[in-house]
Amino acid sequence: MIANFLIGLREGLEASIVVGILIAYLVKVGRRDVLPRIWAGVALAAVLSLGLGALLTFGRYGLSFQAQEIIGGGLSIIAVGFVTTMTFWMAKTAGSMKHDLQSNLDKALLGGAWAIVGLAFLSVGREGIETALFVWATVSTAGGTAIPAIGALLGIAAAIVIEIGIYRGFVHLNLAKFFTITGFFLVIVAAGVLLYGIGDLQEAGVLPGASVYAFDISRAIPPTSWYGTLLQGLVNFTPRPTVLQSIVWLAYLVVVLPLFLRATRRRPAKTTSPSTTTADSTPTPGSRESVLSTGAPE
After folding, report:
1. In a domain, 165, yes or no
2. Which domain holds residue 64?
3. What pTM was computed for the model?
């Protein structure tokens, strides 16, 4: 539940900040008439994400066990790919997100209604799809219990509350540090989801070595114990992984963690738009433009 709460918090905050920046910019340039189109794109993205979640949850029961394991393992690996890619993207672009969104919105304003809807849809939809896949994968590793999904929903709700506070100027959050810390944690969680995905494909017979175990510490850390359950919930720990699972898990961490840390060090400096920012445009508490200052490291 804790891991999924942080997943929901991170992805929800990422999506809500995008929406907040778009809305604040439209208000700033006097184009409130475009706001309904932004909300239309957000609504389409939410419907797509919820539909994907429902399909993943209820769409596999008519399949054989092997087919379910293949689908589950494959989607888990896809979810890991999504999360890893988006984690690196945010690590690199947190400082220039505001400027990039403003530039894209300027182009969309020239392109018409569908361009605005498309911008909002793509900005929010990628977070929603990523969250749906990743939460579903962690729910599957937890044996189908609803607790991880509840944690993710609570995280999304918390993200919305935080973004409202940022938008109103009541909350100040260093997004660079936030996405660095949560990104590091998500890399660890993603490694565990990848481990389970490989295990599903082994059980389906797609990958070899289903009965070749690297080690067995189930007596030292029983999976039904409170600490075993805690480790499983936090990092998808399994006390008896196969050799292939262990190799893939270790290889993922050895490759991805150093690259992620390097990406956070190479984050670009804050970029401003001369056409929209002036020397005396410092946001004040309560200002609707205060959200525009959250995209760069403090």
Report:
1. yes
2. 2-270
3. 0.67
